[in-house]
Design brief:
The chain is built from one helix and ten strands, in the order E-E-E-E-E-E-E-H-E-E-E. With about 100 residues, the chain is mainly β. The protein is rod-shaped, with a radius of gyration of 18 Å.
């Protein structure tokens, strides 16, 4: 009685006077009242974020937020790019190899 509590979004629980995201790959954005992906993770937030795939890392200047794997993660090897069809890093045009960190010029 007489106490107001915040209404946390899906994927979060009340924690004192704020919310705490239950996913390891997310943190709570109090201004948006939602769970958003940490740097190095991708998804729509609110319990959907997952780590960037193997052989990828957070895109340069990609901080906390939401988005697809292509928007938020990039292949570690300079001569590779993410293939949504194959769900892995493949060689860029002009490079050869097996992909997933094996590309060469």
């Amino acid at each position: 009685k007489g106490v107001c509590v915040i209404n946390c979004p899906p994927g979060a629980e009340n924690y004192g006077d704020s919310c705490w995201c239950t996913s390891y790959n997310e943190h709570y954005d109090k201004y948006e009242n939602s769970c958003i992906c940490n740097k190095g993770a991708w998804g729509l937030g609110n319990g959907t974020c997952q780590e960037c795939p193997d052989y990828t890392d957070a895109k340069y200047k990609s901080y906390e937020g939401v988005g697809s794997v292509e928007e938020r993660c990039e292949c570690e090897n300079y001569y590779e790019e993410w293939s949504p069809e194959e769900q892995m890093c493949v060689c860029s045009v002009g490079a050869y190899g097996d992909g997933d960190d094996e590309g060469r010029m």
